[in-house]
Amino acid sequence: MERRTKRTLPRNPKPKEWTAAEYSKQYVASYKPFNFVDGEGVRCSLYVSGCNFACPGCYNLAAQNFRYGKPYTQELEDQIIADLSQSYVQGLTLLGGEPFLNTQVCLQLCHRIRAEFGHTKDIWSWTGYKWDELMQETDDKLELLGLLDILVDGRFLEAEKDLTLQFRGSGNQRIIDVPESLRTGEVVIWKNLVK
Ligand code: SF4
């Protein structure tokens, strides 16, 4: 008889194995305007729905489901843009779920932010992918990466859990300066990192 063992590590996709085209239902789990916890400064955070990494200890288990929450709408996008236009808001944060498996939503929103605000607002995103994995990924994922300022990369690993870290839950995760990393071809850590 087959014995079921409890998973202790996240899943590891092969390059291009998981695509937004296949998985995303373009749902959002939550939108939180004007918060102080999802990156630097005052931020508006969009939590997209659906993630395949299945990290044990995931902070947002419900949002692993691609149909959790409600569909992304033009109305929500207009609200996000209006909220971001407040002078005290530093930028947008994308979380999940997995933003890179919801690129339809994230690309539309990020392109609009760049069109309306240029680089006067910054864009942060969390992902379960590691930087090196993203470098081997599909064009839509690379396009999204190219619109970001900061990427917090890597799965959540319970064995490396550390609640004292800035903006991340386990020591393997990194806060990456995306434009500098793309320019130099190697991972450049965010210059304001304290811990
Ligand atoms: S990558 Fe993030 S959202 Fe996905 S399972 Fe891991 S902790 Fe949860």
TrEMBL record:
Q: Which Gene3D superfamilies match?
A: Aldolase class I
GO MF term (any one): metal ion binding
Instruction: Give the Enzyme Commission number.
Output: 1.97.1.-
Q: Which InterPro entries match?
A: Aldolase_TIM, NrdG, Organic_radical-activating, rSAM, rSAM_sf
Which cofactors go with this protein?
Answer: [4Fe-4S] cluster
Pfam families named in the record: Fer4_12 (PF13353)
For this UniProt record, the keywords arranged alphabetically read as follows: 4Fe-4S, Iron, Iron-sulfur, Metal-binding, Oxidoreductase, S-adenosyl-L-methionine
Task: Identify the enzyme class.
Answer: oxidoreductase
Q: Give the protein's function.
A: Activation of anaerobic ribonucleoside-triphosphate reductase under anaerobic conditions by generation of an organic free radical, using S-adenosylmethionine and reduced flavodoxin as cosubstrates to produce 5'-deoxy-adenosine.
| Family listed | Belongs to the organic radical-activating enzymes family.
State the PANTHER family in the record. ANAEROBIC RIBONUCLEOSIDE-TRIPHOSPHATE REDUCTASE-ACTIVATING PROTEIN, PYRUVATE FORMATE-LYASE-ACTIVATING ENZYME
**What is this protein's record name?**
Anaerobic ribonucleoside-triphosphate reductase-activating protein
